[in-house]
Amino acid sequence: MDKRRLVRNAVKALVKGVVGVLILVTISELTVSLAGGLPDYDLTFSTFALIFLIFIVISQLLSGTVFKHVFNVFSALFLVWYLLYAFTASVLVINMRDIILMVNLRTILSVIIMLSLVGFAKALLELVNYMVENINAENLKV
After folding, report:
1. What is the full DSSP assignment across 33-97?
2. Exposed, middle or buried by CB within 10 Å (0-12, 13-18, 19+), for 76?
3. How many CB atoms lie within 10 A of CB 111?
4. Over the chain, what is the mean pLDDT?
5. Domain limits at 45?
6. How many domains does the chain have?
7. 67-101: per-residue pLDDT in tens?
8. Are the C-beta atoms of residues 28 and 45 closer than 8 Å to each other?
């Protein structure tokens, strides 16, 4: 990787990181009033958002290499694991004065996990495609 490409990737990663932090701050400020009854919402959301932001920045820094694709596969698996970890109860109970609201999140969680598994399959296929293209390029050079 030449220096110009590395600098361009670093600048893109910096821009994506700054935009991501701004979006994170905005979302957390907008949802803090809605999440008053949720236990540990702020900590769970902040942890997820920061880890996801780190994945985006590292993926951009590794752009153009096989490590980007390997990292994307790992981040997709991490996303599935984190969703399972964060929503272990799958039932949300919110107490607001005289009203008790109980929501079963099992169906929603199942759909989100299925979409995350589609993201995992996409990342895995991109990794295989990258490796096949590089093998074909090496065979053509010889």
Report:
1. TTTTTSTTHHHHHHHHHHHHHHHHHHHHHTTTSHHHHHHHHHHHHHHHHHHHHHTSS-EEEEEET
2. buried
3. 10
4. 80
5. 3-141
6. 1
7. 888 888 998 898 888 888 877 766 766 777 777 77
8. yes
